[in-house]
# Entry
Amino acid sequence: MIIKEVGYNKENYAHFGTKFLIGNGYMGVRGTPEEYTKEYMPAINIAGVYNLAAPDKWRESLNAPNPFFVKIAIGGTELALPDATNKVLLHEQSINMALGIHLRKTVFKTQQGQVNIESRRFASMTAHNILALEYIVTADFDAEIIITSGIDGNVWDVNGPHFVRHNIVDGEIMSVEGVCDNGLSVKTLEKVEIKGNLKSQSVIKEDKRILRALTFAVKKDEQCSIKKVAYVSTSKDLQIAKKTSDTNFLSLTYDELLVAQTEYWKSFWVENFVTIEGDKEAETALNYCIYSLQIIAPRHAKALSIPARGLSGQVYKGAVFWDTEMFMLDYFILNDIGTARTLLKYRIDGLKGARIKAKQEGFDGAFYAWESHENGLEACTKFNVTDVFTGRSVRTYFMDKQVHISAAIVYGLHKYTSMTGDFSILADGGLEIILECADFYMSMLSQRFSHRQDSDRVGKLELHDVVGPDEYHERVNNNAYTNRMAKFVLEYALEVLKKQTATSVSQVEKNRITAYKKKLKKCIEAICQPRTSKDGVIEQFDGYFELEDVSVDEVRSRLKDKREYWGGSNGVASTTKIIKQADVVTMLALFKNEYDIQTLRKNLEYYEKRTEHGSSLSACMYGLLHCYCDSVQDAYPMFVKSAAVDLVTPSKLWAGGIYIGGSHPASWGGAYQMMVYGFAGLTLKQTKKGITPVLNPRLPTHWKRLAFKCSIAGKRYNINITNKKHSIKSAKYKEK
Amino acid sequence: MIIKEVGYNKENYAHFGTKFLIGNGYMGVRGTPEEYTKEYMPAINIAGVYNLAAPDKWRESLNAPNPFFVKIAIGGTELALPDATNKVLLHEQSINMALGIHLRKTVFKTQQGQVNIESRRFASMTAHNILALEYIVTADFDAEIIITSGIDGNVWDVNGPHFVRHNIVDGEIMSVEGVCDNGLSVKTLEKVEIKGNLKSQSVIKEDKRILRALTFAVKKDEQCSIKKVAYVSTSKDLQIAKKTSDTNFLSLTYDELLVAQTEYWKSFWVENFVTIEGDKEAETALNYCIYSLQIIAPRHAKALSIPARGLSGQVYKGAVFWDTEMFMLDYFILNDIGTARTLLKYRIDGLKGARIKAKQEGFDGAFYAWESHENGLEACTKFNVTDVFTGRSVRTYFMDKQVHISAAIVYGLHKYTSMTGDFSILADGGLEIILECADFYMSMLSQRFSHRQDSDRVGKLELHDVVGPDEYHERVNNNAYTNRMAKFVLEYALEVLKKQTATSVSQVEKNRITAYKKKLKKCIEAICQPRTSKDGVIEQFDGYFELEDVSVDEVRSRLKDKREYWGGSNGVASTTKIIKQADVVTMLALFKNEYDIQTLRKNLEYYEKRTEHGSSLSACMYGLLHCYCDSVQDAYPMFVKSAAVDLVTPSKLWAGGIYIGGSHPASWGGAYQMMVYGFAGLTLKQTKKGITPVLNPRLPTHWKRLAFKCSIAGKRYNINITNKKHSIKSAKYKEK
# Structure
C-alpha cells in the first residue's frame, strides 16, 4: 500500500506532482516537494470553485495559497530543490495509501555533513478544509538551521493569475487571502507547533506570501521540527458544502488530526481493499485507483462532481466531463452511494445550464455542457486547440457537436437507479433530466423529405453533424455510439414514464403523458441503425468505411510536430480510419447483450488495430469488451494500462499545443469497472427478492484470487473468486 | 479593338500568356512568344479532352504539341527570349480583336546591327483544328539567319506529364503525336511555306520534338519568312465535334485561312460589337470580354462546355463549373443560341455523372459535378487545397457540399427557355435534368422530428451541411442562396410539369405526375426561409450573425503566409463574417423582384463591406445589385473590375498553395450581364405577341451612348440608349 519513488530528477516535477497527489474531495494537494514555487506546479486545487482571470482566457478552477511551503537553510546556505540538486544524497517520495499520508525524505550533503529532511502531510478526511504537515530536520553535525515556512499566495495557474490582490495577516494564526476581481476569494490560515531549540524567529511579509523564519541551534542528530495545521476556505464554500469545519480549526491539533486520518483510512480499506492474489503489481495499481478516486470524491458537498483531471490541477479547466458518469460513477455506486448521489445531484443542478445550451444551439430540452462548471455552465469554447504551426486557435467541435454527453448523464442515472434500487433521485430532479434529454435528441433527429434509392434510411430518423467519443472525426452523421445512446435515452424515458404511477395526476396530464409516450415510441422505432459491412463490422459513422485505411504508425509518421492535434479538420487522423479512442467498441461494451459474440469479436478486432488510444478512456472499454469476448489475456494489458495510467510516465502531456497533464480518474474508474464487470463478471439479476448480483468470473490466468466488497441495492456483499470457485456473501453495509 | 503591351518583362509570362490568348473553341493558344519552352507556360490547350497522368495527380485537360515553336539565330548566336532579354530594343505584343489575330514584334540589338521579328498567328474560326502562323525576320545588315521552327511536344503541364511517348514523323508534313498511357493521343501536324533566300535546311529530331532549321542568306532589310499551317487533333475528336476538317488540311493555305479569319471576325463584330460612347476604356474592355468568350465558345461541338479558366491552360483541371450557367450563358443566349444549346447539351450528357455522384453521396436524383469533366464526371477531389504550413492536403468540401451546382444548371435551362422561347431542349433531356435535380434536393431536405422552442423552423424543411457560393464558410445549414435555389428548382419543376400537355400519357402516368406535383408543392411550401435581422439583413446561413465581425483588412492581417487559403476549417476568414464572394447578394440579384428596394439596399450595404471578393465571380453580382438599387456609380467600378479582370495584372495567382492563374470567362460574362441587365436594364415581358424585351436604362453618368444587338425569342434586336432616350428595333437575326 505504498507508492514510492527513490531518487531525484528535476524533470519529473509535472508527473510526480500528479502521482503523489493527496486530497480529501474538497481539495487536492499536488505531490511536489515543500520548497517548490509556482514554476514547478505545486497546487492546492479546490473543487468546484471557478474564476475567469481575463476575457481572453479560460475559466478554470482555483488554486489556494499554499500553506505547505517550507524551505531550510544551514549556516546561511539554502538547501532547497531543485537548486540544490547536486547536493542530494537521497530523495524519496511516497504515498502511504493505508494511512492517506504523503511522505518525503531528502538527505542533502553539505561541507559540514549531512542534513536530513522528513515530512508527513495529509489532507484531512475528517475535516474537509484542513491540511496538516509535519516537517522534521536533523543534521549529523552541530548546526544552525533555519526553517522558513508559511503561506505562498503566488500560486501556479494555467490561465491565471486569478488573484488581483492578496490580503495578508500576521500573528499566531497567519493567513493569505487571494481575491479575484469579482470578489471571489480563497483564504488559507495556518498555525504552527514548533519543536526544537529555537533561538529566534522573524516574520517575512511579501506581496503575495507571508513566511516565518525559525532559527534553531541543534546539536548533531537532534531534531528541530514544525507541525502545521492549515485551514483552506473560499467565499463560495457555503454554496457547496453540507457543513464547514472552521469553528474546529483553532482546537484541532496535528496529532489529533493524524489519528483521525489513519483511523479513517484503516476502516476505509477494510471495506474497499481489492485483493488480487498472484499479481501484487496489479493489486497495488488498482488500490491506487481506489485511493485516488476516494481522495477526490466530493463527500463534503450536497451536489458536486469530479473534474476530468481530478483535483490534480487546472488542466481542462477543472471542468466535469462525461468521464464521471461513464467511467467513475460505477465505483461510487458500488461503494459509496452518498457520493454517487452527490455526483448526480450536480447534474440535476446543471439542468439550468443544459437548457440554456440547448436553446443556444437551436435544440429543445437539455444539452449538457461538454466541460461543465457550476450550474452546468459550459466551459468549453469553440476554439479548443491551438494550431502548432500558426499559433492560431482552431475551431473545434467538442462543445457543440459532442451531443452524447446528455445521454451519458441519463445513462448514469440509469446505472444508479438500477444498481442501487434507489429511485428517489428521479423525483428529486432525475426524471426531469431524462425527459429534457429525450426532448433534446428528438429535436436533433431529422428525417429527409424524400428517399428513393437509399433504401436503408427510408422513413428513418437520422442524427447528423455530431462528434462521437472518437474526437478525431468531427461533424459526422449517424455515429453508431451516439445514435444508440440517443435511442437509449428515449427508451429509458419511456420506461420511467411507464413506471410512473402517480394517481393524483389529472386526466389532462394523463393524456399529455400518453401522447408523449407515443411520440417517444415512434421516435425510438425510427432511429436509424448503423450500417454494417458484409462481415459484420459496424460502421462508426456514415462514410467511415470510405476513409483511408492506414496504420496508426503510418498516421503518426505524418506528424510534422509531435504536439500536433491528430483530429480536427486538418489533423493527420481525420481523413483516415484511425480513431482516437473506443467508439463502436464502447457501444458494444455497453449494449453487449444486443449482439452475438461473433459480432463483438469481429468489431473488437477491426477497431482495435485502428485505435490510437489517444485518450485514457479508451483502454478500459477495449479491456471490458475483451473480457466479454472471453479474450481475458488481451484484456489484461488494457487493465494494467488503465490502472497504472498515473503510476508510469505519462505519455501525452500535450494536445494541439495545450498542456493536458494531470491525473486520470476516468481511467481509474475504467480499471475498476474492468475488475468488477470484466474479470469478476458481475451482473445483476432481478429476482423475487429484488436485485441480486451474479458472477461470471474470467480471471487472468496468473491471478490466484480476486476478492472485494460491493453494494447492490442497499446490501453489501463479500465477493471471493479463485480459479476454482467463487462466492457472493452478504457483508455489513457501511454508508460512508 | 487592339489590346497591346509595349516593352518586355520576363516576369509577365504567366499574365501575358493569358491576356493575349487566341483560340477558336476547339483550342486556346496562350500568348507567349514563339520561342518559349515549357518553363514559361506556352500551351495549345484542348477543350474537353482529359487525362490522368498518375494516380496521385489530378485529371486535367490536355495541351497539344506546339506547332508555333520558332526561334532564330544570327551568325551562330541565338536571339531568343527570355535569354536575350538584355538585347531587346523593342517588344510589342497585341491582339487585333477586329481580325482575331495575335501580333508580336521584337527588335534585337546585335553587334552587327538590329534584327526584327514580326509574327502573326491565329486559331482559325472557320476550320477548328487549324492554327496558322506567319513569322518574318529582317536585319539591317547582311546576315545569315537561321529560323528554327517545328513542333514542340515537350509541353507544359500542371499535373503532367501526360504523354508517355511521342510519335514523331519527318517529311514535308511533320508531326508530333503525344500518347498517354491509356492510348489517348494528341497529334499536331504542320506544313510550311518558306520565303526568302534559303541556303540550306536540316531537320532536328529530338525525343519530344521535331524542328526544321532553315538557313537564309539575306541582304540588309531583306525579309526571310515562314508561313505555317498546323492541324491539331485528338483521338477523341469524333466523340465531341460535329465534323472535323482534316481532309481540308492539305489544301488549305495560310493566305486563304487569313482571309477567312478576317472575314469571320468582321462579320462577327457587325453583330456583336458593343458601343459605349464616352468611355473608350470600358468599351474596349467589354469587347475584349466578348472576343474572349467567342474564342472559347465550343461552336464545333454537339455538346461541350467552357472551363472556368476558359482555354488558357489546365488550371482548375480544365473543368467546367457553375461559372458557365450562372455567368457566361447569358451572353450566348443573347447572341449565339447554337452555342448556348451546346453548353446545355453538355449538362444533359452529364446527367450520367450527376446521378452517380448523387448516389455516392447518399442522395437521390442528380448532383452535378463541382468540377465537371466529360459525361459529368466529377474532377474535384475531397482534398482541394494544400496547407502551406505542413504541405499536406486539406479536406475541403467544394465537391461534396457545394450542392447549389445542380440548381445552377436548372437555372441555366430556365434562362435558356424563357429568353429564347425554345422549349425543345426540355424534350431533348432538359426536363430530365430538372426533375432529377428536384429529386436531389427533395432527398437532401430534412425535417426535425420534434420542435418546441425554435418556432420559426417548426414543420419546416431544412437544407443542412452545405457550402454556399461563399466558400470560406464550409458545412453550414440553411444557406440563404442555396435554399432559395433549391426552392427554385422545385418551382421550375412544378411549372414545367404543369405545362406538359402530352395527351398520349396513360392514366397511370397521369396519376404519378399528379402525385409528384403534390409532393413538389408540399416541399416548396415547407422549405425554410433564411432568418432576418430586425433591420432586414438576411442571415447568410444559420449562425452567421454570431461570427466575429471584423474588417477584411483585419482578417488579411492575420495571414501568416500570403498563399494561405482564407477558408476551410482553419482559415482566417472561416470564423469571421468575412465572405469570399457574393452569396446573399447573388440571391438578391437573381430574385430581386421578391424584395423591396430597402431590403436590397440594406443587404448590399451590409455584405459589401464584409466581402473579400476573393473570386472573380463576385464583383459583377454586386455590380448588378447596385444597378437594381439605382446606385449606378457604385456599380461602375464593379463593371470595370469584371470586364478588365484579365487586362490588368492578376491579383491572385495562388490559393492554398495551388496555382489558380488563367483567364476569367465568368467575369467576362458577368460584365456582359451588367451591361445588358444592369446598365441597359433589359427585362423580358410576356405579351400577346410573345416574349419581348423592355429597357430600364441606368447608364453611368459619363456614358453618352450604349448600343448593342441581342436576340430574344428568336428575334434580333438593335438596342440604342442615350441619356435622353432609348430604343429597341428589330434587326436581322443571324444564327452563328
